[in-house]
Amino acid sequence: MLNEGDRAPALTVTTTAGDSIDLAAPGTPLALYFYPKDDTSGCTREAQDFTSLASDFASAGVKVVGVSRDDMKSHQKFIGKYDLAVPLVSDDGAISEAFGTWVEKSMYGRKYMGMERATYLIGADGTVRKVWRKVKVPNHAAEVLKAAQAL
Predict the structure, then answer these.
(1) Of 13, 23, 43, 118, which one is the catalytic site residue?
(2) Per residue in 117-141, pLDDT tens?
(3) Structural domain boundaries in the chain
(4) pLDDT at 151
(5) Is 43 in the active site?
(6) What is the 3-state secondary structure (H, E, C) of 28-83?
(7) pLDDT of residue 81
(8) pTM
(9) Which of 37, 66, 125, 128 is the most buried (most CB within 10 A)?
């Protein structure tokens, strides 16, 4: 699990927009949000919330990127269906393992591994500036924006 003040892992990711981002040195501040699954109610709402604030994040000089274990084809369909303005990254497990967001969950007494909803605000130099764990979707994107504007 990464904490505030830690360095982001030396991983390079490719977004649905075709951008390549070195998480350890992104060059501009980055809001990296982890979510469980494309096209599910909470994940859709979160993506729409970040999309509605995309121009505000851009004005603050902060990139926003969503991460899940869905493949790029699923991501493209998700983006198209909801006209999302936030690029997504397909995680093969390396990203969520490095950030500590692949965790044991429990539903109806059954334990399983899954993606924890979490967001990391990473500075241009790769330092983790702020961490939100076990995120609740309502007002989360606005809270991240407020922290991003304070960088």
Answers:
(1) 43
(2) 999 999 999 999 999 999 999 999 9
(3) 30-149
(4) 84
(5) yes
(6) CCEEEEECCCCCCHHHHHHHHHHHHCHHHHHHCCCEEEEEECCCHHHHHHHHHHHC
(7) 98
(8) 0.94
(9) 66
